[in-house]
Amino acid sequence: MNITKVLSQNNTNDPHLLGRGDIRKLLAQYSLPAIIGMVITSLYHIVDSIFIGHGIGAAALSGMAVTFPIMNILIAFSTLVGVGGATLTSIRLGEKDEEDARSILGHVAVVNSVNGIVLGVVSLIFLDPILKTFGASETLLPYARDFLSVYMMGVPVGYVFIGLNNIMRVTGYPRKAMLSSFLTVAVNVLLAPLFIFVLGWGMKGVALATVLSQLTGLIWVLIHFFDKRSFIRFDVKRFRLSSRTVLNMMAIGVSPFLMNLTASLVVSIINFGLMKHGGDLAVGAYGIINRINYLFGMIVIGLTMGMQPIVGYNYGARQLDRSFKALRYTIVAGTVIMIFGLLCSQIFPHLIMGMFTSDSELLDIAIRGLRITTIFFPVIAVQMVISNFFQSVGKAKIAIFLSLTRQLIFLIPLLLLLPGYFGVDGVFMSMPAADMISFFVTVLTFAYQYRGMRART
Question: What's the family (predicted)?
């Protein structure tokens, strides 16, 4: 299938095509821009790490890895509103309630602004204690502090940008949402090496490049939503903040919120385990591994982002067959992607890890860790897609349960148990073991819920 043709099919920007168009074409049409956006964003993180590794040093990579749990917390509060608002918008459009869909746009902007300001200020005030709580050693603390002291100032900008970009995607503008990601990454990739290699600003330069790139993206999406030609746009005169709408958004968004919050706890435990059994370099190795795993995970998330408006719209329109068909296609595509990720990680680990650092000790740990953590990669796609399916149809409790099974119920106990027997390898082994167990739980849960949903049609 020609990608250019697929991306150009949505010329009418009419979200109601979700209820009558060919599912495979719609999934490609909505997923490809999201996937490209996710890949671009993931490559930006990878390129940033390459700049840090070669421009600042191996210790800086480890310092960056210490910030991951905090970043997960920040993402959690962003998705609580942004993902919930996008899902609710899709359902309202399926119900032909365009007035309420427009209202949700304003709610996302206001609530994410408040969240970003509060979290940014609190984090800056208690930055050092927070970093030490999450495992920053005296060696790594200066690098992590330099990055977050600048990054936290731009949190409100990033929150509003991500939230509005999600709304743009589900209201008939997937290509524009993709271009938003491309724009932010392009600005970051241009500014980061300038700030690191030319101006010598170190980790502060990395953070400043990130904030300025998100500000560029925010300006882009604001122009779109103030344009009278946009299907869903800002209408300040008719906007009123509704507690019911805010609670509905959060009820749906609580699944990815808890998933990211739990991820923060998990990464903290991983960092503590690696620090105990392998030292600072083991933490840095995980930081690199996380970037690679994140790339393939983000591609699957891009697929689910394309699936979400199709499933949500057709569920709201009581066309369950179309929702389930979108789910099947997404599972197959996601599994193929993760199989490709598995093969790359097992066959070319030296080439992949060599991009980030030339430190031989760091390379040895990273290569071994990559091979271990990706061994059950394909089953991750099934768990991710099915969990997102329940989120897309508004079944928040089930989505929350599935989101928590891998990280909270299975992974944390394994992280506390296996390193005592296998050291650093035990930390890495815990991840694929949790993947496989949560896969079986997810499949069984879906089989049970599927029968119930069919019985009510």
Answer: Belongs to the multi antimicrobial extrusion (MATE) (TC 2.A.66.1) family. MepA subfamily.
Structure tokens at 359: 């430190």
Residue 7 inside a domain? The answer is no
Nearest Cα neighbor of 249 from 388, 394, 114 is 394
Q: What is the pLDDT of residues 272-325, one digit of tens each?
A: 899 899 888 898 899 889 889 988 988 998 898 888 888 877 877 777 888 888
DSSP states of 230-284: SSS---GGG----HHHHHHHHHHHHHHHHHHHHHHHHHHHHHHHHHHHH-HHHHH
Residue 277 counted as domain residue: yes
CA–chain centroid gap for 11, Å, is 28
Give the C-alpha distances (Å, rounded to integers) separating 159 from 71, 83, 113, 205, 241: 12, 11, 7, 20, 18
Whether 272 is covered by a domain: the verdict is yes
* Total number of residues shown for the chain: 457
- Which residues constitute the domain of residue 266? 27-455
Q: What is the pTM of this model?
A: 0.73
Task: Indicate whether 257 belongs to any domain.
Answer: yes
CB 261 within 8 A of CB 91: no
CA torsion, ordered 377, 262, 49, 58, to nearest 10 deg: -100
Where does 35-175 show beta strands of DSSP type E? none
What is the C-alpha to C-alpha distance for residues 351 and 215, in angstroms, rounded to an integer?
Answer: 34
Q: What is the DSSP string of 294-321?
A: HHHHHHHHHHHHHHHHHHHHHHHTT-HH
At residue 9, the pLDDT reads 44
When divided into structural domains, the chain yields a total of 1
User: How far is Cα 205 from Cα 179, in angstroms, rounded to an integer?
Assistant: 24
Q: What backbone phi and psi angles, to 5 degrees, belong to 14? A: -100, 110
- Per cent of the chain over pLDDT 90 is 33
Query: Rounded to whole angstroms, how far apart are CA atoms 267 and 165?
Result: 27
Handedness of CA 270, 276, 278, 280 (dihedral sign): positive
pLDDT tens digits for 14-47?
556 777 778 888 888 888 877 887 787 787 778 8
Closest-CA residue to 427 (of 436, 418, 435, 439): 418
Cα gap 103→121, rounded to integer Å: 28
Instruction: Please state, in angstroms and rounded to a whole number, the distance separating the CA atoms of residues 126 and 368.
Output: 36
Sequence letter at residue 282? A
- Cα separation of 198 and 53, whole Å? 16
pLDDT digits (tens, 9 = 90+) for 188-226: 889 999 999 999 899 999 999 999 999 999 999 999 888
Taking the C-alpha atoms of residue 298 and residue 314, their distance in angstroms, rounded to an integer, is 24
The predicted pLDDT at position 2 comes to 43
